[in-house]
Amino acid sequence: MNDLKKLLEEFEKYPTPYYFIGAGISRRYLDTPDWETLLKEICEKYSIQFNKLLYNSANKRTNEVDYSLLGSMLKERLTEYKVENDNTYDFRVRDALKEEVVNILKEKHLNLIETNEVVALRKILKKSSGVITTNYDLLIETLDSDKDFESYIGQKGIISENISFSQEIYKIHGCVTEEQSIIITKEDYNLFLEKQKYLLGKLIVIFTEYPMVFLGYKMSDENIRSILRDLSISLSKEELEKISKKWIFVERKEGEKELLIGKREINITTENQENFDLIFNCIETDNFEKLYNMLNNIKNYIPSNKKVIKYMRKIIQKYEFDPESKIGVTFDKEIEKVKNIEDLKLYMGVIGGTIPTPHNVTKDMLFNSDKKYTNELKKEYMLRIGNNKYYPRYFLDLSEFGIKDISLNDISLSGKLKLKELKKYNLKDIIVEYDEIIKTFKNKELDKVKLLKQCEEFLKKIFSEYDAEFDLKKIGSAYHSNIKKIVCIYDILKYKNLIKKEE
Hints:
The chain contains 21 helices and ten strands. By secondary structure, it is α/β, with parallel strands linked by helices.
């Protein structure tokens, strides 16, 4: 108990952990096959002799099976089978083995049952800084029910993308959603190991700065050993020993109801052929609900709004590699002329108030029409709008910022709202009003005073219902588009003074 308390106290010094998740977790919740069972299942489907492949891929001295080699041999046999039995099968553009893996695993996440243990797992992942996994399936994405995380698939995705090290899922062995990213044959693994140092170069900040919890792996797992060996290239023995103190390795011990705290050792051989034992904190248990609740109760530092931190990191990274990118970044001086860097003020996303979006500008136009916007905010609004055609513009008086003019003749309205769909969104009472707006708008003798009143009543109902960005895409993109068009009609009629001019 004292060891557990000491471990928890150590973890509380750091941000929320990353979770390194292996096949054991997917087997536990989705009943996915392990590597051997997966390949055996494919063999049985096509009447390929699995035992012979198993024998030929094993070390004859130790009987240790090289499953990646087994995968290569199975791919060859499977490709031959498909070429012989399907005249349309083109082996040059299709991968017989990966196709089968995807077919077996692509819908396994639908097997997830919402037990108390799964609910507890969902909670710790939601609080986590991120997830690294070697699994191909969609368990982690399914657990991320609020869609807070972004997925980066395979080495190519992780190395090439602008990752922010916050609320991200790194699927380093590929995913069923991108068939060719899957690493399963000897050739796949050789290429992976060849490039792994580049991958670790991108992710080394995670291993060094964050606590790590390893779930679903055995201590002997070659994936873990390989990563630790490559880490030893970039980090000294002392650095590795220091960061390993904030790592927890979880091993399943069948039937064990308690959390047994201990130590485990992994022998590391460095590039200089130096050998040393890396010591981990280890928890043995089969009571994963208790484990997850323990991890959930650790009082790690959690930023008040992780999404904001993530967004800010991405802004900085994008600006670093693309100085022409001005989205979200504003300086109070011309940076080329600054001599004293401390005199420079950087504004990220907020300049004298919240950067306006079409949604909150529309709300101000409807409910707070006296609100004034600074020139800085107007500039940021124009940057955010980009080439978007339908947005409120005359309410803000953007004439000095190169606003593109728009008239009623530039707008077309069509489409009927569906009562069945609108019931879900508490909007069924707007159908008649919507239809009346279209009817008035399409009348050859347009009554602009009537149309203005109709648009105002219609929009006030919608925008008083939705405080966040109003999104009718779930009902249909045409209806979502028409809402934006009605906002433009209202903006033109009321703030471009068309009615007043004609009267």
